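Quick one, T. Sequence first:
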Amino acid sequence: MQRVRVSSQQVPVQKLGDSQMTLSPKFKLASIQSRLLDPLTESELSLKGDPLIPGLPDDIALTCLLRLPVAAHPATRAVCRRWYQLFCNKERFFTKRNEMGFQDPWLFVFSFHKCTGKIQWHVLDLTHFTWHIIPPMPCIDKVCPHGLRSVSFPSNGSLFVCGGIIFDADCPLNVVMKFEIKKNHWTVMKKMITARSFFASGVINGKIYVAGGNSTDLFELDSGEVMDPRNGIWNPIANMCTNMAVYDAAVLNGKLLVTEGWFWPFYVVPRGQIYDPETDNWENMADGLREGWTGSSVVIYEHLFVVTEHERTKLKVYDMKSDTWKLVDGPPLPDKICKPFSVNCYDSFIYVVGRNLHVAIGRILILSGSEKCPRFSVEWEVVEAPDGLSNLTPSSVQVLFG
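Structure tokens:
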């Protein structure tokens, strides 16, 4: 197991961009407007004068400068006026990266302080292993972090946060907020039809699906809805076969898998539902699938993997043909990663964020077997978070590119 440490040459946690929003003493969505590039400074950046880098054409120099890590921006602003114009505004920096096709991975971690309850999105640069923060969501700190749900569109560099519940009140929320890397700010979207917390969510064919969860007075819901981000409008889908709050959910083979999860002690077998958007129909989950779903899930190589909260936190994979779970070859989750943890993935990598925001990065390898029933192994490395992130607990994790 390889341990990766954050460089000590920069401040461990930095702002990814200037905050645009203030938090209200009551739950209130902020009125947010897009920040427009200053036409004067944008034209100054493109003026022909002193080259960005002596001896290089500006287009080639720009591709070099756009590769500089965010942690280096405060120092690079002092080089010259044109560098200052490029690096002083994160919206401009990421917009130009987007225009030139840069696709570097960023791990967005929604976390809260276990003593104060303060919430914040922290971002790990997976290329340079430095931590940053983004502007706060347009809501108060009193929101229960476990009640809301987030989904993402990694290649577009955007994530959505939906629903939730206010601490000390049986008051679920129907708010929807969107963050975009290239704009470095939040936008308040149209509300969900139904206020809900602890519900299922997933992205299928470019649309966001939510289902189940808790309503007022913790009454369990059976309703679901779908939203197309292109128009932001929510529409109802078929009701579930049962009312249920949700522990975990995943999208596999174009279907939304929903489980209420095991509760200790194991007195009751958990329920599970599967939604097919093609037929707008729910069906009960196979026995082996729901009974063995004992942790947080990701989908890699079109297979469902679970980081178990039991079984020595080993990684296991579901075999659809036999309706059984099989342990993945390789070591268990590194000891540094303590529960509670949050999980996400991209390509063949799984990211597990534990208490104090230490991150385990697992690479999933195919060892042998048939295409429909391969054998997998996992290799772990650990990215240790700086001391400034101690006492933080993860609640949600998303991977974005920008």
